[in-house]
Amino acid sequence: MSDNRQSLADLASLTNQPAPAAPAEQALPTSEGDLAAPVSNEPVREPMPLREQILDKQGRAYATGRRKDAVARVWVKPGTGKITINGRDQEVYFARPTLRLVINQVFGITEREGQYDVVCTVKGGGLSGQAGAVKHGISQALTRFEPVLRASVKAAGFLTRDSRVVERKKYGKAKARRSFQFSKR
């Protein structure tokens, strides 16, 4: 039976290829450089390429933001930090300071206060939903203008559409879940 077996060197000579090294020979380092850099079987991962900057002909980034029933169309361009909503300044349109804080959260996290002008049109819903829609739109437009900011904005959760909407009213009920008052007699 040992006569039928051929060594790896004999097989390699038949195929005109060099004989493969024994497993023990491969494991031993041959120089000091081999000791410093261990060999791994994992593929080398290249860093993810950055997304491209998406601008229109006027040099603005455009995005759509949504929250509840409100839809905001947002354009971002370099400027002095002026935010215009439906042709009015943000202090006039959103009189409550909490709503203005919601809009400016994105610039606070990315440390870009006063560096971009924002023009947006928003319709539908109430003031709270509109402020959330503008925030969502600014977040998306800012990441299209500066793709480097995408990781920090996404980590803060500003790129995610808040899918919570009003629950529909059901028949046989007073509201979505509230039942009519029960009368025993």
Report on this model:
This protein has 185 residues and is of the alpha+beta class. The protein has a domain at 61-149: Ribosomal Protein S5, domain 2. It is built from 7 helices and 5 strands. It has a 5-stranded mixed sheet with strand order 1-2-5-3-4. The protein is flat, with a radius of gyration of 31 Å. It starts with 7 loop residues before the first helix and ends in a 29-residue tail after the last helix. InterPro entries: Ribosomal_Su5_D2-typ_SF, Ribosomal_uS9, Ribosomal_uS9_bac/plastid, Ribsml_uS5_D2-typ_fold_subgr.
Helix-strand layout with pairing:
Blueprint: H1 8-15, H2 23-27, H3 32-36, E1 61-67, E2 70-78, E3 83-85, E4 88-89, H4 90-93, H5 97-110, E5 116-123, H6 127-145, H7 150-156
Parallel strand pairs: 3-5
Antiparallel strand pairs: 1-2, 2-5, 3-4
Helix pairs in contact: 5-6
Keywords: Ribonucleoprotein, Ribosomal protein
Biased composition (Polar residues): 1-17
Pfam family, one: Ribosomal_S9
- Average pLDDT, to the nearest integer? 86
Distance between the termini: 100 Å
The fraction of residues assigned to DSSP E strands is 15-25%
The top level CATH class name of the domain at 61-149: Alpha Beta
How helical, in percent, are the residues?
25-40%
- Poorly predicted tracts of residues: none
Annotated CATH topology of the domain at 61-149: Ribosomal Protein S5, domain 2
Overall strand count = 5
Shape annotation? flat
